[in-house]
Amino acid sequence: MTATPDAAERVPEIGRARRRKEDARLLTGRTRWTDNLDPAGVLHVAFVRSPLAHGAIRSVDVSGALARPGVVAAFSGADLAAEQGSLPCAWPVTADIVLPDHPPMAVEEVRYVGEAVACVVARDRYAAADALEAVEVDYEPLPAVVDMAAALAEGAPLVHADKGTNRSFVWPFESGDIAAAVDGAEVVLRRRYRQQRLIPAAMEPRAVVCAPEGEGFTLWSSTQVPHILRVMLAMVTGIPEHLIRVVAPDVGGGFGSKLQVTAEEVLALLLARRLDRPVKWTESRTEGFQTTHHGRDQVQDVTIAADRDGRLRGLKVDLLADMGAYLMLITPGIPILGAFMFPGIYKMDAYAFSCTGVFTTKVPTDAYRGAGRPEATFAIERIMDELAAELGMDPLELRRRNWIRHEEFPYTGVGGLTYDSGDYERATARAVELFGYEELRAEQARRREAGDPVQLGIGISTYTEMCGLAPSRVLGELSYAAGGWEHASVRMLPTGKVEVVTGSTPHGQGHATAWSQIVADRLGVPFEDVRVLSGDTQVGPRGMDTYGSRSLVVGGTAVVRACERVVDKARRLAAHLLEADVGDVEFTDGAFAVRGTPEPSVGIQAVALAAFAAHDLPEGVEPSLDSDAAFDPDNFSFPHGTHLCAVEVDTETGRVSVRSYVAVDDVGKVVNPLIVEGQVHGGLAQGIAQALYEEAVHDAEGNLLTSTMADYLLPSSADLPDFVTDRTETPATGNPLGAKGVGEAGTIASTPAVVNAVVDALRPYGVADVEMPCKPERVWRALWDAAARNGGAR
Amino acid sequence: MIPAPFDYVRPDSLAGAVAALAEAGEDAKVLAGGQSLLPLLRMRLAYPEVLVDLGGIAELRGVRDDGDFLWIGAATTHYEVLHSSLVREHCALLARATATVADPAVRHRGTIGGSLAHADPAGDLPAVALVLDARMAVSGPDGVRELAAADFFVDYLTTAMDDGEVLTGLRVPKVWAGWGFHYEKFARTAQSWAVVGVAAAVRERDGAVAEARIGLTNMGAVPVRARAAESAAAGAGLAAGPLRAAAEQADAEAAPPSDLHAQADYRRHLARVLTGRALAAAASG
C-alpha cells in the first residue's frame, strides 16, 4: 500500500478495483448534505404552490401568514416581480424558438400543479409549513392542456396565450435521400413508440441554503452544476457574479434533475438579500415529485426501410417532445441530444429527423439519465426487433448484417457523428456466450410448443451512445449557450501531498477515488496522498460540472493534463538539482533520474519541497509545484455494448419477471472496475424501471396522480435479477485515458432490451407492442386485444 | 411533509388510553406503529388534535395461548407475529400473510392491531382475519366488547368501533388443525400494496376439498369473503382443474375499485386466477 517511489515494482492504480474513499461518510450521513447545514440565525422557507394546472392569479394575500407565530416574512410573486427575473433556458435550439418568460414565483398565471405562487419565511420549518394555509390565493381556473396531440390541435387552449401557439420549436435534420430510401425499399415498417414521463427521484431531495456573507452571498445547493448555477444566478438576479459563491456540498444523486437552475435557488438568494439573514429550503418528496423537472415524455413516430435480406435503407423519425409549461435550463436540447443517435450502430443510406417541442400545463421536462439517447436507442432497438420479426430473421442476425464492423472504425455514420472506436462483434459474442442464447431460444420454443402459461421472451439491445459532453465547437453549432470543456488544478503541497481541484462536481460518481487513482499513477505518489476538492466556486472557480457521462472523459483528462504540467515543471527543477540537462532527465514511478544512470535520483515529493523553499530555482521556474489545465474534447466518445434480457411473462396475470440479464459493455479503458460495475448496476435498475415500473400519470385536469412513492413505483433490489456483467475494451481515441464514459450506458441500453423481451414472449399471441411501463394490466390487455383481433379466445 | 400541530399523550395503561380518548373527544386518533397514520399526518390528509399513543401499554403487546383461542395483542408488531411459534402453530395463514406486509422496516414498527383498525382494504391482514374468524376485542368507556371480523370492517377505512374505543387485540379460534393455508399477493413491486390478495384455507378429506375459505384483499371497500367460490370448491378434487373452476366465482361477491394500479375488470380477472392458485397452494400446503 505504501508504494514509495523507491519500491521495486509499483502497482498501477488505474485499473484497480479500489473501494471508494468517500463512501464511509456518504453512507453514514456524517457529512455535509445541504439539509444538514444550519448557519446561525437561519430562517426557513416554505412555498405556497398552485393546486391548479392552469389558472390566472386574481389576488394573493399573505397578511394572514404574517400574523402567524414565528413568521418573519411572506411574499407573493408580485412582491418580488421587480427583482426575480426569469429562469434561464441556455439552449434555444432554433432561432425562432418560442421561449416564454418563467418567473421563479408566478405573478399573473400558474401553468402547472405545484408552481410556486408565494412563500413564507419563518423561524423554523414547522412554523413556515403551518403558515402556508393562511396565505389566500384567488385563482380563475383556465383549461389544462395535458396531452401533446391535444395541445397541437386547432383551437387548443394555449399554455402561454401571448405566444399564440403551443408549439415551441420544430428542429429538423436530414442526411441522404430519405424519400428515395423509403420508396425503393422492399420492406417499410412504421411504429409509434411512447416514452412515458419519468420522475428522476434522486435519493437526496433538493435543498438550498443561502447566507449573506460580507459583501456577497454563499449559496449551498444540492446541485450537479455549481459553476453553471453561479453564472446563471448572476445573470438572472443582477447580483454581480464575483459576489456569489456557490457550494455543492456532498450531493446524494441527481440523474440530471439537479442539472438545473431552479426557482427555489434564485428565490433563496433574493430572500437572503432582502432579509439579510440566512435562509433554507428543503423539498418534501411529494413537493419534489411535483416540481423537480421530469424526464422523457416523447411520442416517437418511426419509419424504417429495408431490403428483404435485412439491409437497412433508411430511417425516419418524427418526435413530439413534451416541454411542460416552460423551457428550463436545457429543456429543448434534450430531444436534440438524441437526434443524432437514432441510427445507432447501423449503416444505412438516409436518415431524417424532426422534433416538435410542445407546451403543456405540466412541470417542465429536462435532463434525465441519458437525456435524449435512451429515447433514441429505444426507438431503433425496438424497431430492429420488429423488423427482424417481419423478415423472419433472428434479431441478432439482422443486427450483424447492418452494424459497423470493427475494421471500419473510425466511421462517420448517417447521423453525422464519427464513431472513433468499437467492436460490436466482440461484445455481442461475449454476451451471447454468457447469456446462453441458443439454449434460451430452445427453451422458448419448447414453452411455445407446450402452450406454457408462462412464456419466455428474449430481448436484445446492441446500443451505442454519445457521451463525454462535449466539444465546445459542436455545442456552439447546436446553439447551446456554454462550452463543454472541463478544468482541473493539481497542487503539490510542500510535504509532497497532493490536492486536486476539479471542476466536475460529483453527486455519487466517486470522483475522489477515481481522480486519486489517476493522480497517483501520473505523479507516482501513493493513492492516500491525494485529496480531491470540488463543488465550491471559491475553491475551484472554473468548471462545467457533471452530466452527460463527461466527468472522466473530459474532467479526468483535464486532471491528466494538469499532472503532465506539474511533472514538466518538476523535471526542470529536478534537472537543476541533479545538475543535468532537462532533456536527459527521466520520470519514472515518482522519481527523476538522469537517463542511463539510475543513481542518484530525486523524488517528486522532494522536488515539491524545493519548489516551496525556492532557495535555488533555475532560471524561469517559479516557486511552488502546481498547475492548471483545461480540456476541450474534439469529439464525443461512444460507449457501446450488447445487452440480452430474458423475461418470463405470466400470460394469465400479465406479470413480467426478469429472469436473467447479461450486460457486456465497452466503456473503453477503465480506471476503477468497481465504480464501473456500480454505474452499470444502477443504470440497469433505472432502465429496467422505465420498461416495467415507472410512470408519471396525470389526470385530465393536469394533477399528478403519482405524487408519492406508493404510487410512483421505484423498484428495489428485491424486484431485480442478479445482473451478469462483463466488459470488452476498445480504448477511446479522443482522450489520453482511453475512457468512454459509463454513467448512463446501463440506462440507455436496458429499456429496449426488456421491452423487446416482453414483446418477443407475446409475439405468437399476436402482440406486436406493449406500451411502457409494461405493467401487468397492460400486458394482460394487450393479450386480450390480440385475441379479440384474432377473432377468438386465446 | 410536516404534520399540522397536535397534542400527544402516551398512557401506560389501557384504562389510561380509554380515558385519554374520552377526554379528547372525536378529534383524537389512536397511534400504534404509525406506519399508516404518520404518512397521513405528514401529508396533512388527517388533522387530529390529539394522538393517543398505545406504545407504552405493555398489556396490549404479545401473543399468548388462551384456551380455545390464541390471543394476539393489538400492539404486537408484525415482526413479532411473524416470529411467534404460537401463531405459526395455530394460524399459519396469519404468519404467511404478515410476511408479505411492506418491508422489514415497516414490519418492525407496524402492528397487527393498527393494520386491522386502519381497515384499509388494500391491507393484507383484514382478509386474513375474515378467513380465520378472528374476534376483535374492543375497549371503550362503556366497557369491553367483542366483534366478529365479518362485522368489524364496515367501509373503506372504517370499522364498527365507536369514537373512544380502542382495539385491544384479537382472538383467533384454534380450530385449524388439518387445514392448509396460502396467501397469494399480487403486487407491482416487493414493497407496494396488493393490487389483489387472496387468503385461502383448505381442509382436505379423502383427496377432495372438504371445506374452503377464501378472503379477498383490495376487491372492495372492505375485505371480501368469496362464499360462492368457497361453496363451489367444497367437494372439488384437489387437482388444478376443479380448483380453478371453483375459483371462477371468486369475484362474485366483490365490488373492486378502479384506480391507478388496476381497473376493476382486471382486478376481477386477477381475483379468479389468484384464487385458483391460492386454493391449489393451500391444498398442497
From TrEMBL, chain A:
Residues 28-143 form the Aldehyde oxidase/xanthine dehydrogenase a/b hammerhead domain. Its cofactor is Mo-molybdopterin cytosine dinucleotide. Keywords: Molybdenum, Oxidoreductase. The keyword Oxidoreductase applies. GO terms for molecular function: iron ion binding; oxidoreductase activity. Gene3D superfamilies: Aldehyde oxidase/xanthine dehydrogenase, a/b hammerhead, Aldehyde oxidase/xanthine dehydrogenase, molybdopterin binding domain. InterPro entries: Ald_Oxase/Xan_DH_a/b, Ald_Oxase/Xan_DH_a/b_sf, Ald_Oxase/xanthine_DH-like, AldOxase/xan_DH_MoCoBD1, AldOxase/xan_DH_MoCoBD2, AldOxase/xan_DH_Mopterin-bd_sf. The keyword Oxidoreductase applies. Signal peptide: none annotated. This is Carbon-monoxide dehydrogenase large subunit.
Automatic annotation (TrEMBL), chain B:
SMART domains: CO_deh_flav_C. This is Carbon-monoxide dehydrogenase medium subunit. Keywords: FAD, Flavoprotein, Oxidoreductase. SUPFAM superfamilies: CO dehydrogenase flavoprotein C-terminal domain-like (SSF55447), FAD-binding/transporter-associated domain-like (SSF56176). It comes from Allonocardiopsis opalescens. The keyword Signal does not apply. Residues 1-177 form the FAD-binding PCMH-type domain. GO terms for molecular function: FAD binding; oxidoreductase activity. The lineage of its organism: Bacteria, Bacillati, Actinomycetota, Actinomycetes, Streptosporangiales. Signal peptide: none annotated.
